[in-house]
Structure formats: structure tokens, C-alpha cells
């Protein structure tokens, strides 16, 4: 019925607008000012590049989460896989000095491998020991945070640390800035390339097809003779690899080294991005830009309106609920998760 | 080994494990009815803040705990609405709840109690007189906060209700065969809602325990994965409230051990010890894999 | 005598579909009436209305002359009507007594005192001539045992009308006898019964008269004494069926040899206990057995879906004598598998028909190259297959879940069968389908046999096995009996084997 749909849709949109507004009001600010500040910043001369800068790792992690989710696997370990990527890529970075573009690619590949190893471990534990990948990935997140904290204060520390951080990577591994005067780096190209690659993999390749079947009807995967255990491990590895790649990209493009709390929260944000994009690779960069607006804008809101940054998380949660509830208002034929 | 050391670890372990245990009690009931709530991490965080804020604001720790329970009920109720009425995937709703909890607790904290130095009155431990002085057992069992005894009672009561009452039978039917339960006129959604709300209530208690009883403060992100550890304990305990309760205390003991080890081996980088409870969770899931029930 | 129950003009529609259209009939106390019709005739909708699960759009129900409105199963119970469902409403992981209590809402309150409850159930059970193991898990019970729980639940309040929905569908011959005996005994006590079935034997063995339904309407009735069965069949089906093809093939070499096969279920119990047999080209072996005795696991093992614990399966197909025993390689080598659980195995309901075509054809050169799917070629192949196999769908881009069960099955058969297939493993291929599709599928199997294909047909329908199979095999408690030629045994013997390991 049309009217039921409209009412339900209205409720969802209303909810999405109301919840953040309430918190803004409780903080003593005007929601309208918040909205205008956000928009002006995001589309203004300083902000637009920052939005894209934040969107880059979110795109990569979101792609990974979406690919795994399409196969019925919940990869909540984006944070840990990101960290693994930073560690492995920075660890091997000194060997890639002086190798030019090849060195850069090797650097990024190391990041992918780091995250993939973690993802594969989670997949293996799930298939061999029936260990919930939700729990294991989250536990590994906390382990990874501690381990990297140790590494940048110890074996991988900067010889002259002004604060806890790792040594710097050689110049060849640095992703060049695309637009002078901004922080927007060539990681953008990496992210967009991965979007295209995964759009093709998901819809055009046997591997993508098998992962779709695994998620849509695991029994059919067995019937068709897919090697389900190997497939699960591979999907988790690829998903984790994208998270690791995001880590390497952030190091190569923004920080040139590992610092504390680098990728904090990207894992969960990646889940939000994947859900909003309805798990479609092509839609992920757009969802990532939306969150880039929130993340980059959140800093502006904190600076100009004294609104604590965690407001961004509240918005993120609201968006997740609103998007997830959409199928209640609009029966959706391509139901994903 | 040093008896004092062991006593200390066990007593501290029970204290440290209590927040996980409280959350695990309610979550095991919720999962028994067939619904996961991995968002209890977010509920605990919100409750930790609300409990601290309420406690500081009213001067009464008990009132703070009540506030925390209320927020737990509200958030769990929202999860029930999402999953049971709007048909949202329960894991996605849970993730949303976690993110909300992170945002809400930090946002509100920065605007209120963190903005200025605030003291949070804590709950005094019950003084059971002579009982507390029994060597070994005394400090471990009788030196705990009143909430710990409430937790024990809740764990046992929840198990009894599930196994011995018609209400509990209906709950189990919801979890073991909801299609059949519906066909037999069991009000599945009502039973599940009750269980989810109970889960929120105990998660709220767990969060409040953390800030009001244990740390006497609110620190951002202070739950640090305990909500997820609670879910793991429920899996390990095969959704039996009392076993999940015991498993949670086990993690508390792991954490107490890790803290003690830091002082015993000061040269060992502390990070390697901090990760012990999290690794223990993974190892426990792996070892217990023949017994673990997993529907995730 | 006033009828105990009278239905007048019951109508129920779901959108355009009239599940029940002006249905009227009556039943006297102590009478056993059979309601017969093929799948889709409207029997289950009628049962739901009589049992209080749904309300009719129009029409009325009279109990002992008084009009009643039943809005819930509880209302039906109050009116003296009890229902034994076709698909048992039991929760496997709970015990017998827990399921008994669950099935009686009036018992579900407060603290459960099972000792007191048991004595109540014992009375009913003794009446039935059975005894129940109250603290056994339902998952450990046989099908007959589970039905007994349903019966005890239904008879607990001494109903005046017992409705049984397809009660003999999953019972081996001996248990079926026992059930029909029980119904006749209850009749002697003045209880009326409605037996819903699509099997004529049930009617002739037990009922006083039959009411025939087709396409939602009552199209006739029969006293079951004077009418000849052919006429009854015509009433049920409405027209002539395509004549069955009875081309027997010539038996050739063994294509599949099974030796001392041991297969376990997921829960560790033994499903197939050292079974051995040969499947030859050009023959159909019918595999029978009470559900849950290992047939499913045997089929899955043969199809490469389940690992073998001991023993061996040797496929002698064409050039290769040994084939890697995984489902994909077997399919490539020409072993087709029609799974008994269509929705959970054979198809992906949310995918389009073309995507479902790919499911078992990922090694076909025309459809996949260098790991990339050739979607255009697949769409074309799907389009052809839909046309050839009479699959009613809007096209290759239709969603599988939009198709009816019969059309889905025709699609699966179109995908599985074809050139290069030398072995067909068919699991309940006609179960639950309309009579026309059933005939088409049976004819297809016969035609394949005539071409020299080896077919293993798992079926719960003994008459189907008798019509189609050359040899028959029985599984009971994991042990294989046979295969023996159909001509050298009888239904009675097969029934006996099915219940005695």
C-alpha cells in the first residue's frame, strides 16, 4: 500500500534527522547551524579534499566488509586488519627504498598481505573450530591495537620520537599528493581502482559467484561442489587484505609512518559504509564520501561549534539503523544481508 | 605458590569479571529465546556513563545504578523494535548499537562529567563482619560489592526460570523452533522482547558496575570489549546463565592475573599481558568448539 | 441424526487465488470421512479453517447444529475439534513431555510439575495402546513415535472430531496399519474423524465415504463401496493423465559400485552401515525406507556432498574409472543429482534463473572462460532450457522464488539432465508436486533409462517405485537390503524390511 510505505519512509527519515538533532540541541547548539557548517565545510575550499581523504580508507575497508558480508561472513575486524597492514608494510618498507613505482606497489602489497593474513586466520578458525568470526575479529582488534602500541615504542620505533611513532618509510613508498595545497593523495587512485576490480570480481567472476552463493544459500554451495572451507578462508583473506591495504595507503599517503590510534574506528565505519551502499561495490565510494563528510566535518564542528567529535558516531549509528530499516518501508527485491 | 597472591587474584578476578558476568546473564537469556544482541557493548558503555553521571549528579550510587538500568532497558527495547518489528538483521542492529554507545557515552561525557573534575560516589563493599575475615574464602566470596551478590542471585534465578517454568519453556521453544512455537500459539515476539529487555537490564547493571563500583569514574571507551567477551561467554556457557556467569568470572581472573603479572615482571612490555584475556577468549572458543553452540 | 460438523459455503481467497471456493460438506458423529485431492486442491486451507488457524472469508461452520466462529486453535479445541498436523509441530531438541505441554496452551502456566502432567498424558497414551518415553528428546524418535506425540496431544481433551492431515504420508506399512486401526477404534467410541489424504488406499482402508476436492471446490463424493477406483481418480484429477511410458531398458555394465560404505551424520551417528550395491546402466533402482534411516546421507555421499568414513564408491563412467569424489567433478563426469531438498540445495531462491543455471555448470567451457562468467551464453542456454522443459517463467531473468515448486523442479531437471549424463541420483523428485508435473518427471526418468542411463530413485511413494523401478533396495537403520528385482518381491515384504533392520 502506498500510504503505508510513505508513512514508514517518513518515520525512518524523521528518525534519522531527529536523533542527531536532539543531541545537538542538548549540547546547546542549533541543528540548522550544524547542517550549514557541515555543508559549507564539505563543499568549501578547505573541506572537499579532506572529505575525499577520509573517504579513501573507508572505501577500501567498506569494499572488504561488503564482499565478506555478501558471502554471509561478518568481518568486524577492519581495525585489526588495518593495523596489520600498517605494520607489515612499514616493516618491509626499508627494503623498497630506491625501487620507484615497483617499490610503492610492493609496499602496498605488503599491506594487503598483512590484513589478508589476519583475515585468513579468522576464516580458518571459523571453519576448523566453529569459532564465531564476530568474536574472533573483535578480539583480534584489541590484540592488534596493543601489539602495534608495543611495536612503535619498541622494535619499530622512530630513532628520534617526539611522540610514540614508528620510523619513517622511504620516499619511494610515499603516495604523491594529487592536488597541491591539500592532503589528497594518490591513494584515491588505489581506492577507485579497487572499486572497479571488485565490481568485476563480485559480478563477473567464478570466485565472486561462489561467494554470492555461499551467502545466499550455503546448502547450494555444498550441492554445487564448492569447497566451502577454502572459499570461506579466501573470502575472509580478501576482505582482510582490503583492510590491510587501507592501512598501507594511510601510511603511504598521510602519515608516512605508524602513529597511535591511526585507524581508530575505521572498521566499524567501514561496516556502515558497506551497509549504506547495500553491499554494491560501485556504490561504496559514494557511501564513503558521505561518511567522509561526517568525519571531516566532525572536526570542523568541534573546532567551530565546540561539539564533541563523537557526535559523528551517533550520526553513523543513526544512519545504520535508518538504512537497515529501509526494507521495512520499501520491500526491496535485491535483498542483500 | 603464594596463597596471598592467589587469594588476591581470585578476589580481584571476581570483581573484574562482574561487569562481563552481569551482561552475560541477560544475554544468555536473550540468546536462549533466539535473539543475539551483540550491541551490549554499546549498552554497557551508555550505562557506564549514565550510571556515573547519575551517581555524581544525585550523590547516590544506587540511583546512578537505577538510571543505568533504565538506559539499558531503553536501548535494548530499541534493539527489540528493530529486530522483531522492523525485521532488521540482528547483527547489524547490534553493530549500530555499539557505535551509538561509543558516540553517545563519549559525547555526553565530554559535555558533562568529563568537562570538570567530578567525583563519583561508589558502592561500599558489604561488611559481613567475621565472614570476611575467613582466610582465603573470606576476601574472595564475602568481600565483594552488593551487586556481585545480586548478580549471583540473578544468574541462578534466570537458570531456574528457564528450566522449571512454563514461561521458560516457551522461551526455549522460541529459541529452538520458533516456527513451531508460533504454530502452537506461543507469543514469540512478546517472549523475545521480554528476554531482550532483561538482557538490556543486566547489561545496564554491568556498565554501571564498571563505572560506579569498580573504577569510580567514567573513562571513554572504558568497556573495552567486555560486552563482546560477554557474548563469547554465553557461547562458551552454551547459553546457560549460570555457566556463562562462571565463564565471565574466569575472564575476570585472567585479567586480574595479567595485571598482577605486570608488577611481577616489570620488564615485560605490558601490552603482551593486556592482550591475555582477549587471546584467552579466542583459545577458549577454539578448545571448546565441540561444546560451543553457534548460530552466528 | 444431526451432523456433528457442517460446513456451508466456506470460501477463502488469497489475492486472486481462491484456495477454497464454496466448500460444503457434513460429518455425522462416529463417521470417518476422507477428503481427497491432489496437491493444490485446497485441502490444507480447509483443514486450517476447521482447526481455527484461519477464518473463512465467507460461509459458516455449524457444530451440532449451532453456528460457531473459531478465531484460534483454542476455539476449535473448545468446540471439540482436534487436529493432527501433516508436518509435526514438534521441536526436536526438546523432550517429549516438553513438547506435549507446549502443544496444550492451557497447561502452559506457572511452574511446571512434570510428574503431575505425566499422569494426565499417560491416560491418553494407554488408550491409544502406546507408552511414551517422556524425557526422551524428540530428535531420537522415529517418525511413528513423533506422530504418537501429536496424537496424544490431539486426544488429550477427548475431542469429538479428530482431523488428521496426510497422516500416512511418512509411515511405513506396519505403522500405517496401526494408525488406521486406531482411528477405527476411536470411531467405535463415537468420535468422528476426517482423514485428509491424496492416497486412495487410505480412503478404501479406513473411511466410510470420501469427499473429492479439486482446485478449491468440492467436485464430488463417493461411498467407496460401489464406485470403481478409476472414476474416483478421474474425479480427483479431472481428466486423463498422459499414459505412462513403460519402456524398460536393457541392463548394462555397473556404472556405480558401492562397497562396505560407512557414512556418518553431522551428529556422529552412523547413517549408512556398511552398504554395498551396484547400479547398472539402463536400470532404475528404487531406494525405499522410512525417513531418517540413512537414505539422505547415502544419496549425498554418492553425489559428493558428504564425506565417506569407510568403504568406497567406484564410478566407472566412460573413459575414467576413478573420479575425484567431489560434487563438482562428479557433475562434470556425468553424474546428475536432483536433491530431495530443492530450496536448500538445488537452487538459490533469491537468484535469477540464469544465475541458477551457472550453479552446476561452472566448468562448462561455453559458459566460463578464464574464471569469468559468460552471462550472455548462459542466458541463452537458460532460455532454451526453459522452453524445452516447459518451465512456466517470465524468462531467464525471472527470480527462482517466483516460480512454483513444479516449475522449479522442471528447471532443475532441465539443468541436471542432458547429453553426457550417465548416472542420475534422484531424491524424491516428485514429492509435493502437482500430478501433471509428476507424470512428466516420471516419463523423463523412464526415457533416460531407455537411453542407458543408470538411475537411483529415492522415493517414499511405494507405488511410484513399483511403477518405475527394475530393482528395489530398502534402508532400515542404516542397513541396506537388496537390491532385488521388483518382480521377485512384494509390497508387504518391502514394508516389512522397512521396519525391521
Describe the biggest sheet of chain A?
Answer: none
Domains of chain B, number: 1
SSE succession of chain B: HHHHHHHHHHHHH
User: What is the C-alpha radius of gyration of chain A, as a whole number of Å?
Assistant: 20 Å
Distance between the termini of chain A: 24 Å
What composes the largest sheet of chain B?
none
The overall number of domains of chain A is 1
Per CATH, the class of chain A reads Mainly Alpha
Name the beta content range of chain B.
under 5%
User: Total number of helical segments of chain B?
Assistant: 13
Radius of gyration of chain B, in Å, reads 19 Å
Principal-axis shape of chain B:
globular
Mean pLDDT of chain B: 88
Order of helices and strands of chain A: HHHHHHHHHHHHH
What is the CATH architecture annotation of chain A? Orthogonal Bundle
**Overall mean pLDDT score of chain A?**
91
Total beta-strand segments of chain B? 0
Description:
- The complex is a heterotrimer of chains A (337), B (296) and C (501).
- By secondary structure, chain A is mainly α.
- Chain A has 13 helices and no strands.
- Chain A is globular.
- With 296 residues, chain B is mostly helical.
- Chain B has one domain.
- Chain B contains 13 helices and no strands.
- Chain B is globular, with a radius of gyration of 19 Å.
- Chain B starts with a helix and ends in a 9-residue tail after the last helix.
- The model of chain B is unreliable at 292-296 (pLDDT under 50).
- Chain C is α/β, with parallel strands linked by helices.
- Chain C has 3 domains: 5-237, P-loop containing nucleotide triphosphate hydrolases (Rossmann fold), CATH 3.40.50; 252-334 and 420-501, Rossmann fold, CATH 3.40.50.300; 343-418, no CATH class.
- Chain C contains 17 helices and 21 strands.
- Chain C has helices at residues 43-50, 73-78, 96-102, 114-128, 143-155, 173-188, 200-206, 229-237, 295-302, 327-333, 342-346, 353-358, 375-388, 405-416, 435-450, 462-468, 491-499; strands at residues 5-14, 17-27, 32-36, 58-63, 66-68, 81-84, 161-165, 192-197, 209-214, 217-222, 254-264, 270-280, 284-288, 310-315, 335-338, 368-369, 372-373, 423-427, 454-458, 471-476, 479-485.
- In chain C, helix 3 (96-102) runs parallel beside helix 5, helix 4 (114-128) packs across helix 5 (143-155) and helix 13 (375-388) packs across helix 14.
- The mean pLDDT of chain C is 85.
- The interface between A and B is large, with 48 and 44 residues.
Amino acid at each position: 500500500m502506498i500510504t503505508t510505505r510513505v508513512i514508514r519512509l517518513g518515520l525512518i527519515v524523521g528518525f534519522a534527522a531527529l536523533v542527531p538533532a536532539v543531541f545537538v540541541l542538548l549540547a546547546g547548539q542549533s541543528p540548522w547551524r550544524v547542517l550549514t557548517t557541515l555543508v559549507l565545510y564539505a563543499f568549501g575550499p578547505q573541506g572537499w579534499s579532506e572529505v575525499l581523504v577520509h573517504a579513501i580508507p573507508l572505501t577500501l575497508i567498506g569494499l572488504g566488509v561488503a564482499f565478506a558480508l555478501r558471502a554471509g561472513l561478518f568481518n568486524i575486524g577492519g581495525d585489526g586488519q588495518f593495523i596489520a597492514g600498517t605494520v607489515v608494510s612499514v616493516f618491509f618498507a626499508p627494503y623498497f627504498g630506491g625501487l620507484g613505482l615497483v617499490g610503492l606497489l610492493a609496499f602496498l602489497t605488503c599491506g594487503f598481505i598483512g590484513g589478508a593474513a589476519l583475515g585468513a586466520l579468522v576464516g580458518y578458525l571459523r571453519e576448523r573450530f566453529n569459532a564465531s568470526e564476530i568474536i574472533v575479529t573483535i578480539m583480534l582488534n584489541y590484540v592488534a591495537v596493543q601489539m602495534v602500541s608495543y611495536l612503535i615504542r619498541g622494535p619499530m620505533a622512530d630513532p628520534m620520537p617526539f611522540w610514540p611513532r614508528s620510523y619513517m618509510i622511504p620516499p619511494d613508498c610515499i603516495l604523491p599528493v594529487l592536488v597541491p595545497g591539500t592532503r589528497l593523495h594518490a591513494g584515491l587512485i588505489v581506492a577507485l581502482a579497487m572499486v572497479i576490480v571488485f565490481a568485476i570480481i563480485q559480478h563477473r567472476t567464478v570466485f565472486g559467484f561462489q561467494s554470492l552463493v555461499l551467502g545466499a544459500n550455503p546448502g547450494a554451495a555444498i550441492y554445487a561442489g564448492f569447497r566451502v572451507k577454502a572459499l570461506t578462508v579466501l573470502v575472509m583473506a580478501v576482505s582482510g587484505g582490503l583492510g590491510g591495504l587501507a592501512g598501507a595507503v594511510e601510511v603511504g599517503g598521510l602519515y608516512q609512518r605508524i602513529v597511535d590510534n591511526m585507524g581508530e574506528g575505521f572498521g566499524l565505519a567501514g561496516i556502515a559504509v558497506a551497509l549504506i551502499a547495500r553491499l554494491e561495490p560501485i556504490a561504496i565510494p559514494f557511501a564513503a564520501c558521505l561518511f567522509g563528510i561526517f568525519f571531516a566535518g566532525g572536526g570542523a564542528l568541534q573546532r567551530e561549534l565546540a561539539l564533541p567529535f563523537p557526535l559523528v558516531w551517533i550520526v553513523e549509528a543513526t544512519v545504520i539503523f535508518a538504512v537497515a530499516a529501509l526494507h521495512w518501508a520499501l520491500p526491496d527485491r535485491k535483498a542483500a544481508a | 605458590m603464594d596463597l596471598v597472591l592467589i587469594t588476591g587474584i581470585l578476589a580481584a578476578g571476581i570483581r573484574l569479571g562482574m561487569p562481563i558476568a552481569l551482561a552475560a546473564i541477560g544475554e544468555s537469556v536473550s540468546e536462549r529465546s533466539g535473539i543475539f544482541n551483540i550491541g551490549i557493548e554499546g549498552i554497557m558503555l551508555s550505562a557506564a556513563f549514565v550510571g556515573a553521571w547519575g551517581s555524581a549528579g544525585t550523590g547516590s550510587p544506587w540511583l546512578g545504578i537505577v538510571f543505568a538500568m533504565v538506559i539499558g532497558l531503553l536501548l535494548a527495547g530499541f534493539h527489540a523494535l528493530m529486530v522483531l518489528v522492523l525485521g532488521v538483521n540482528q547483527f547489524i542492529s547490534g553493530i549500530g548499537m555499539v557505535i551509538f554507545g561509543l558516540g553517545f557515552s563519549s559525547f555526553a561525557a565530554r559535555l558533562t562529567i568529563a568537562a570538570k573534575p567530578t567525583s563519583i560516589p561508589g558502592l561500599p563493599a558489604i561488611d559481613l563482619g567475621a565472614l570476611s575475615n575467613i582466610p582465603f574464602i573470606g576476601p574472595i566470596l564475602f568481600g565483594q560489592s552488593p551487586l556481585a551478590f545480586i548478580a549471583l542471585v540473578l544468574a541462578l534465578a534466570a537458570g531456574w526460570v528457564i528450566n522449571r517454568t512454563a514461561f521458560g519453556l516457551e522461551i526455549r521453544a522460541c529459541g529452538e523452533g520458533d516456527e513451531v512455537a508460533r504454530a502452537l500459539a506461543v507469543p514469540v515476539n512478546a517472549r523475545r522482547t521480554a528476554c531482550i529487555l532483561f538482557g538490556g537490564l543486566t547489561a545496564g547493571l554491568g556498565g554501571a558496575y564498571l563505572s560506579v563500583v569498580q573504577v569510580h569514574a567514567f573513562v571513554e571507551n572504558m568497556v573495552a570489549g567486555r560486552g563482546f567477551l560477554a557474548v563469547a561467554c554465553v557461547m562458551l556457557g552454551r547459553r546457560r546463565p549460570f555457566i556463562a556467569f562462571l565463564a565471565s568470572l574466569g575472564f575476570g581472573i585472567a585479567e586480574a592475573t595479567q595485571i598482577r603479572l605486570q608488577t611481577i615482571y616489570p620488564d615485560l612490555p605490558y601490552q603482551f599481558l593486556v592482550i591475555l584475556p582477549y587471546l584467552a577468549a579466542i583459545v577458549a572458543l577454539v578448545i571448546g568448539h565441540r561444546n560451543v553452540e553457534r548460530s552466528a | 441424526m444431526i451432523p456433528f460438523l457442517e460446513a456451508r459455503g466456506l470460501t477463502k481467497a488469497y489475492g486472486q487465488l481462491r484456495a477454497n471456493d464454496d466448500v460444503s460438506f457434513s460429518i455425522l458423529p462416529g463417521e470417518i470421512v476422507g477428503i481427497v485431492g491432489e496437491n493444490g486442491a485446497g485441502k490444507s486451507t480447509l483443514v486450517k479453517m476447521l482447526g481455527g488457524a484461519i477464518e473463512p472469508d465467507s460461509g459458516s461452520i455449524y457444530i451440532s447444529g449451532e453456528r460457531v466462529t473459531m478465531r484460534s486453535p483454542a476455539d476449535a479445541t473448545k468446540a471439540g475439534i482436534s487436529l493432527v498436523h501433516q508436518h509435526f509441530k514438534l521441536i526436536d531438541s526438546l523432550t517429549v513431555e516438553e513438547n506435549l505441554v507446549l502443544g496444550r496452551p492451557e497447561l502452559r502456566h506457572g511452574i511446571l510439575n512434570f510428574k503431575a502432567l505425566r499422569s494426565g498424558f499417560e491416560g491418553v497414551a494407554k488408550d491409544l495402546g502406546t507408552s511414551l518415553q517422556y524425557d526422551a528428546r524428540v530428535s531420537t524418535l522415529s517418525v511413528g513415535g513423533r506422530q504418537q506425540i501429536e496424537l496424544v496431544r490431539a486426544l488429550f481433551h477427548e475431542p469429538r472430531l479428530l482431523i488428521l492431515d496426510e497422516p500416512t504420508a511418512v509411515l511405513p506399512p506396519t505403522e500405517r496399519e496401526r494408525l488406521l486401526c486406531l482411528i477405527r477404534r476411536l470411531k467405535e467410541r463415537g468420535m468422528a474423524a476426517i482423514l485428509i489424504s491424496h492416497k486412495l488406499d487410505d480412503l478404501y482402508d479406513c473411511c466410510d465415504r470420501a469427499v473429492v476436492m479439486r482446485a478449491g471446490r468440492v467436485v464430488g463424493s463417493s461411498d467407496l463401496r460401489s464406485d470403481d477406483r478409476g472414476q474416483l481418480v478421474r474425479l480427483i484429477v479431472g481428466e486423463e493423465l498422459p499414459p505412462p511410458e513403460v519402456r524398460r531398458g536393457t541392463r548394462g555394465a555397473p556404472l556405480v559400485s558401492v562397497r562396505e560404505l560407512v557414512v556418518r551424520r553431522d551428529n556422529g551417528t552412523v547413517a549408512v552401515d556398511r552398504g554395498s550395491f551396484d547400479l547398472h546402466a539402463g536400470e532404475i533402482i528404487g531406494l525405499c525406507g522410512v525417513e531418517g534411516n540413512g537414505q539422505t546421507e547415502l544419496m549425498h555421499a554418492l553425489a559428493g556432498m558428504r564425506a565417506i568414513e569407510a568403504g568406497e564408491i567406484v564410478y566407472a563412467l566412460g573413459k575414467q574409472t576413478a573420479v575425484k569424489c567431489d560434487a563438482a567433478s562428479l557433475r562434470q563426469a556425468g553424474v546428475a543429482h536432483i536433491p530431495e531438498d530443492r530450496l536448500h540445495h538445488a537452487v538459490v531462491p533469491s537468484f535469477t534463473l540464469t544465475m541458477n543455471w551457472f550453479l552446476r555448470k561452472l566448468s562448462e567451457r561455453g559458459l566460463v572462460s578464464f574464471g569469468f562468467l559468460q552471462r550472455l551464453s548462459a542466458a541463452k542456454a537458460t532460455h532454451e532450457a526453459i522452453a524445452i522443459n516447459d518451465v512456466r517463467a517470465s524468462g531467464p531473468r525471472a527470480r527462482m522464488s517466483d516460480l512454483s515448486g513444479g516449475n522449479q523442479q522442471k528447471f532443475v531437471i532441465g539443468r541436471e539432465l542432458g547429453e553426457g549424463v550417465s548416472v542420475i541420483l534422484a531424491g524424491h523428485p516428485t514429492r509435493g508436486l502437482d500430478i501433471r508435473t509428476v507424470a512428466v518427471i516420471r516419463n523423463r526418468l523412464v526415457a533416460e533409462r531407455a537411453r542407458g542411463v543408470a538411475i537411483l530413485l529415492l522415493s517414499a511413494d511405494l507405488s511410484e517405485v513399483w511403477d518405475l523401478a527394475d530393482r528395489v533396495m530398502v534402508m532400515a537403520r542404516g542397513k541396506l537390503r537388496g537390491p532385488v528385482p521388483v518382480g521377485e518381491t512384494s509390497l508387504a515384504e518391502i514394508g516389512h524390511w522397512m521396519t525391521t533392520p
